[in-house]
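Posting here for the record, re: zinc ion.
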Amino acid sequence: MNPAIPVFLYHAVMDDPPDWIAEFTVTPRDFAAHLDAVVDSGRTPVTISTLADHLAGRAPLPPRAVLLTFDDGFADLPGPTADALAGRGLPATAYLTTGAIAPGGRSLLPPAPMMPLGRTAELERFGMEIGSHTVTHAQLDTLTTRQLRAELLDSKAALEDTLGHPVPHLAYPHGYNSPRVRAMAARAGYETATAVRHALSSDRDERYRIARLIVRRSHTVADVSAWLAGDGARIAPYRDGPKTIAWRWYRRGRATLNGPEFAG
Ligand SMILES: [Zn+2]
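Prediction output follows.
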């Protein structure tokens, strides 16, 4: 049996995104077609808690799970995107960049229409689970320990204050992480963290770097259907290659010189 679990990563769903996020934005029409493919696949849509329970050995996963995740907190999320998901009975997970959505907050994300933090509880009523996507969206593997701790704890606290319950799941901005970031995420009270990796996850994936597939505007329904079939990408877990490690050292050196940078 193919053990692949596709964890889709969406950003904005809109027709006229700002240029900087356009590559990672799908139109509402393409999005609807993707969701129909998810329904037609016969997979069981779950949120991150279900995968977390399985990876922690607390509960089995339903057969052929699939996850839909949304990063950053763009304005469409509590509106047409939540409607499209709820209309098909699809639960999802939203990772919010608190500095970009809180009143008076600050983040490294360039300007874009964002949802307000005050609508976070509404997302839950639509069947979404809320996770943290840090405060400023910095590249976590380049930060000092103090900066890293603030990104992990302050975003968690802001969401917990708003929702009134624990928020034990994290997504690394742009997926950037390292052994140190993963250990700090665990120490900050997170049970899981999703990365990117451009790979399919699996029922044996690593809790602190769950693989996700970024959906780009150029991806077709055929791409989405291939991933749903467990094809078209490698299956995590697997070790970091030398390129990933070299790229991390390069970015860390640059951050030392220039300060924290936006992670796309
Ligand atoms: Zn992001």
